[in-house]
Amino acid sequence: MPESKSRDKGSYTAPTAKSGVVKPNPRWFAPVMVGFLVLGLAWVVTYYVSQAKYPIPDGGNWNLMAGFGVLLVGFAMLTRWR
Questions:
Q1: Residue-number span of the structural domain to which 36 is assigned
Q2: What is the Cα–Cα distance from 43 to 38, expressed in whole angstroms?
Q3: Contact 82, 27 (CB under 8 A)
C-alpha cells in the first residue's frame, strides 16, 4: 500500500495581541452618567409619589417610559465606563 507524503508544517505562531492602550473616560463622563441615573430615578419616584400627576400631568404611563428611558441611558453609559 502506498504511503502518503507528509506535509512540512511550520511551527504554530500565536497571533500578536493588540497593543492599543485603553484610554480613560473624559472627566465629564462619570458626572453625566450619575446625573442620568439620578434623574431617571427621580422621574419615576416623582410619578409614583404624586399619584401620576407629575412630572408631566397629561403623560399618563408615558412618564414611566420617559423615566426608564433616562435610566437606560445611564445604564448604557455605565457599560462604557472605564
A1: 29-79
A2: 8
A3: no
